[in-house]
């Protein structure tokens, strides 16, 4: 007798940004490097402030599909200010966030989300992780992957996010380095 099994095709998307290497931090924390291995991640969405080519090359080693927007400290002037990427059934907007005033403001973020016509808006700049749903859309700020300081966040906990995209659901795993421990939080968003 044959049985039919539903096969879930998932796509892992690394959401990362504000590394500021080498200006504010020397490198990505070793505990994060051990977690981020080539061959597992399908796409990388970076909110910018990589600051040098070596950091971009490191990301390119993790996945061949790397999308970066220009941060206010990036040396590479060819990165776009904003970008829209489609992954599975989701339109995902990417913007560094220094252009959004006030920084991190929900109504200002919602305006950019509507302008880009996206299901998920990913921004950075504040160096503080945030993920929330607003008006049936999902917003992510991966924070600073290196814990680099910023004018509004002196003691940023290093963080990044992995989105597991399955059909109309995104399960986001947030990785934060707290002392010597990597803490993981799970957040789910379902497209309506």
Summarize the structure in words.
Helix content is 14%, strand content 35%. It is mainly beta. Strands 3-2-1-9-10-11 form a six-stranded mixed beta sheet, covered by helices on one side. Strands 4-5-6-8-7 form a five-stranded mixed beta sheet, with helices on one face. It is globular and about 40 Å long. The N and C termini lie far apart (37 Å). Mean pLDDT is 90; it is low at 1-8.
Q: What gross morphology would you assign?
A: globular
* Residue share in β-strands: 35-45%
What is the tally of helical segments? 3
* Rounded mean pLDDT score: 90
Tally of DSSP β-strands: 11
Q: From the alpha-carbon coordinates, what is the Rg to the nearest angstrom?
A: 16 Å
Q: What is the CA-CA span between the terminal residues?
A: 37 Å
Helix percentage = 10-25%
Main β-sheet description: 6 strands, mixed
What's the order of the H and E elements? EHEHEEEHEEEEEE
Q: Give the strand order of the largest sheet, numbering strands 1, 2, ... along the chain.
A: 3-2-1-9-10-11
Protein structure class = mainly beta
Residue windows where pLDDT falls under 50 for at least 5 positions = 1-8
């Amino acid at each position: 007798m044959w049985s039919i099994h539903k096969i879930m095709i998932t796509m892992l998307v690394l959401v990362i940004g504000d590394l500021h290497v080498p200006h504010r931090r020397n490198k990505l924390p070793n505990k994060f490097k051990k977690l981020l291995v080539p061959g597992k991640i399908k796409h990388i969405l970076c909110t910018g402030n990589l600051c040098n080519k070596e950091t971009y090359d490191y990301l390119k080693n993790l996945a061949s599909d790397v999308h970066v927007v220009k941060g206010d400290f990036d040396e590479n002037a060819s990165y776009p200010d904003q970008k829209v990427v489609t992954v599975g059934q989701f339109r995902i907007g990417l913007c560094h966030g220094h252009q959004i005033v006030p920084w991190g403001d929900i109504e200002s973020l919602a305006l950019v989300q509507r302008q880009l016509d996206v299901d998920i808006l990913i921004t950075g700049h504040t160096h503080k992780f945030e993920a929330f749903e607003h008006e049936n859309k999902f917003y992510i700020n991966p924070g600073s992957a290196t814990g680099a300081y910023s004018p509004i966040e002196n003691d940023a906990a290093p963080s990044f996010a992995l989105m597991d995209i399955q059909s109309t659901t995104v399960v986001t795993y947030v990785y934060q380095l707290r002392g010597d421990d990597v803490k993981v939080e799970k957040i789910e968003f379902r497209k309506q």
